[in-house]
Amino acid sequence: MSKWLFVGVPCLTCLSFLGVGARPRPISDSGRVAGDSFVFQTLGFDHAAASGRSVEGRELLEQTCAKLRAARWLRATIWQRLHDAEHPYESTAILTLGPDHCARMETTLHAGAASCQHLLVSDGHAVAEVERFAGAEKVAGGYLPGEQPGPARENYLRRHGCTGPLPLLVELQAIVPQWQVQTGAWRDRAVIRLEGAIAPGRGGGRAAGFCRVYLDATSRLPLRLEWFKHADPRRAPLHLEMEYRDLELDRALTPQECASAFTYVPGLEN
User: What is the pTM of this model?
Assistant: First the structure.
């Protein structure tokens, strides 16, 4: 699995700022127990009526990816926690994506007692990035690559972590050959949990191991992802957890909301 999955939304610059000297205390691991409160239940969803066969994990994941591919608008709060002895962090990002590579991502990253903020704003042509750390602010701007909307601009936003869950789920489709499907409840909502081991040689070194994907049982949209550094999750603690909170597709912004979200005005951003 690519390294970006472990950094994801938090900016790499913030992680470099928050060095060992800036982190006098570790991040609490209280989220490990709370995040795994999955209760097995039979939901009755998992049979294809036409054939009577059970729905497979890859089929469910493809349904999710198809919904995300079709969406022109996406909004979510993305929460992450990395349980790593050397570089632990916790982050929250508010992400808004619109048509033609309009994007806005506001990230706050905590590492021990220190924190930093990162803002990325794209109007589909120009892009601005703002980093705030220890009272200092750094602003950079430029233009998205390419003369027209296309893969170059999409890849630019992805490299900066400004992307929804689709690229991550597509990569999981490629590196997890077989998914086990479970149904149940997680935080009082009906979910489908997919879990599987990453195929040897496909996990990009340290990312190899075992992963879980929690889908809303009704919408099939992703709620939570978990990674373990061993193919048997009972033999390794939770390494990375990620949640897509309040994920919403295709609720278009008004022109006024677009101007506010996708325009960077120096001095007006908090």
Answer: 0.84
How would you classify residue 138: left for phi > 0, otherwise alpha for psi between -120 and 50, otherwise beta? beta
Q: What is the pLDDT of residue 139?
A: 93
Whether residue 214 contacts residue 191, with contact meaning beta carbons closer than 8 Å, is answered with yes
Ranges of each domain in the chain: 37-261
Beta strands in the chain (DSSP E): 38-40, 74-82, 89-97, 102-111, 114-123, 126-133, 136-143, 180-186, 189-197, 210-216, 222-228, 238-249
CA-closest candidate to residue 14, choices 111, 94, 96: 111
Kindly indicate the confidence band of residue 39, based on its pLDDT and cuts at 50, 70 and 90: confident
The CATH number corresponding to 37-261 among 2.50.20.20, 2.40.320.10, 3.40.50.12280, 3.40.50.300 equals 2.50.20.20
Q: DSSP per residue over 242-264, as a string? A: EEEEEEEES-PPPHHHHHHHS--
Please give the pLDDT value at position 204.
56
Q: In what order do the strands lie in the sheet with 126-133?
A: 38-40, 180-186, 189-197, 210-216, 222-228, 238-249, 74-82, 89-97, 102-111, 114-123, 126-133, 136-143
Cβ–Cβ contacts within 10 Å for residue 146, how many? 14
User: pLDDT band for position 232 (50/70/90)?
Assistant: confident
Angle between helices 57-70 and 166-175 (to 10 degrees): 150
Looking at residue 200, its pLDDT comes to 80
Nearest alpha carbon to residue 183 among 38, 42, 59, 37: 42
The pair of three-digit structure tokens given for residue 20, joined into one six-digit string:
């060992």
